[in-house]
Design goal:
385 residues, alpha/beta, seven-stranded mixed beta sheet, five-stranded mixed beta sheet, 14 helices, 15% strand
């Protein structure tokens, strides 16, 4: 292993960063479905690509190291990762989840796992006392996003982990919005970390992937069994692309977050913006907790235009920034949570948690700040009714 202390170096040299067979500085794409065996009953390291592939194994070792976990697992999408983790539970179990999680997570719980009598309740996980009051004998896990999607609520990772240990619950954190460069939930006691690696880890909007990291050998065995049994594994080519994306994670996020803080301050001061949600602003609820557990406020901003604005005109008036699903790429993207990422959540639930029709989610890219600021300003002015 290379000699390094900091995650900036680990993203490049962590995990299996050199091909053990050729000493290539990049692990190759092992584009194979199976491996020749020398005899029966020998328990070979490689046998079938769903069970294990050297390129995927290099990625899994890398994310395990970056998240300070025991083992990592790569999946065909973020939702494949989420669904595999949820497959740990059985009929009659209940999961407490953050009140504004990604719409796909809510949907798979509400429309798929509920069919197997695995139940859930959405609550404000920033309130530790509320979480504790909701823990009943059937509750088996706490599932959080911090910052949450799309309102960027902050949950105390250490506090949730302590509740998990007190009541013997699994604690699961979706760390997509921060990535291990900005936040490492396992270091605060969380059991399982999930990523939609499509986002910041890939970083270039050219692949779809999911990652899971666990904090114990017991959980590693359980997730490995489910990964192999369910089979939603990441292929070798996308594993290779994801490793390449991770190598620039630190330099990309430094630019992402520098732009985001400047844009959040600009939007906060804009006369036609009524609300700004960004954990890096000192008046953001949870600012101090986020400061304790994360490097900075991240690169996601949500904001609301005043009522005299047409959000559709706003989106159509953007030039540099694209209206699109997803986030975390080098290019800036906006979306309308109520009709896009969170459309699967019932309207009454969206209204209750604050996902309004005027809410805009902005994934800040690495373009020039002045260009981004000008694009937003022009679109805001053009959207007045």
């Amino acid at each position: 292993m290379a000699d390094y202390k900091f995650i900036d170096s680990a993203v490049i040299h962590g995990g299996i960063s050199t091909d053990p067979y050729t000493k290539s500085v990049n692990v190759p794409i092992y584009q194979t479905s199976t491996f020749r065996q020398e005899g029966i009953g020998l328990n070979p390291k490689w046998e079938y690509a769903r069970t294990g592939n050297p390129t995927r194994a290099a990625l899994e070792a890398l994310i395990a190291e970056l998240e300070a976990g025991v083992a990592g697992f790569a999946f065909a999408s973020g939702m494949a990762a989420v669904s595999t983790v949820l497959s740990l539970f059985k009929s009659g179990d209940k999961i407490l989840i953050s009140s504004n999680v990604y719409g796909g997570t809510y949907r798979v719980l509400d429309k798929v796992f509920k069919n197997f009598n695995i139940n859930f309740e959405s609550i404000d996980t920033s309130d530790l006392a509320l979480i504790e009051s909701k823990i009943t004998p059937d509750v088996k896990a706490l599932y959080i996003e911090t910052p949450s999607n799309p309102l960027l609520d902050i949950t105390d990772l250490e506090g949730v982990a302590k509740l998990g240990k007190k009541y013997n619950l699994l604690t699961i954190a979706d760390n997509t919005f921060m990535s291990p460069y900005l936040q490492q939930p396992i270091k605060f006691g969380v059991d399982i970390v999930i990523h939609s690696a499509t986002k910041y880890l890939g970083g270039h909007s050219d692949l779809v992937a999911g990652l899971v990291v666990v904090n114990s050998e017991d959980l590693a065995k359980k997730i490995a069994f489910l990964q192999n049994s369910v089979g939603a594994v990441l292929g070798p080519f996308d594993s290779f692309l994801l490793i390449r994306g991770i190598k620039t994670l630190s330099v990309r996020l430094d630019r992402h977050t520098d732009n985001a803080l400047k844009l959040a301050k600009f939007l906060k001061s804009h006369s036609e913006v009524s609300k700004v949600y960004y954990p890096g602003l000192e008046d953001h609820k949870g600012y101090e907790i986020n400061k304790k557990q994360a490097r900075n406020g991240g690169a996601m901003i949500s904001f609301e235009l005043k009522e005299n604005h047409d959000v559709n005109k706003f989106f159509k008036s953007l030039n540099l920034i694209s209206l699109a699903e997803s986030l975390g790429g080098v290019e800036s993207l906006v979306c309308h949570p109520a009709t896009m990422t969170h459309a699967a959540i019932p309207a009454e639930v969206r209204a209750k948690v604050g996902i309004t029709d005027n809410l805009i989610r902005l994934s800040v890219g690495i373009e020039n700040f002045e260009d981004l600021k000008n694009d937003l300003d022009v679109a805001i002015k053009a959207s007045e009714k």
